[in-house]
Fold this protein.
Amino acid sequence: MGELLTLRRVYANKAAEKLQLGTEETENALILDKIEAHIVITDHSTKVRDAISAERLEQIIAEARVEAPRLIEYGMARYAESIEARRLGGSPQ
């Protein structure tokens, strides 16, 4: 049983680590979210380059690159907590 609990923890952590593979996709999702929050579009045929300056877009991209790993790390921790909570019969905090 001692090995079973250790092995479960190892596999839960390995599964959570796989979430890191989505860093680029996470960055892209954050970039799109930030663009949407930054601009107000009334005409949906407007091109992004016409609605936001190149400088602001570069800032948004830089912010997303910093935030993506943090968001993934948070998600990894929450996932590992949910696996552990199942074992303990509770719910994640």
Notes: The chain has a mean pLDDT of 84.
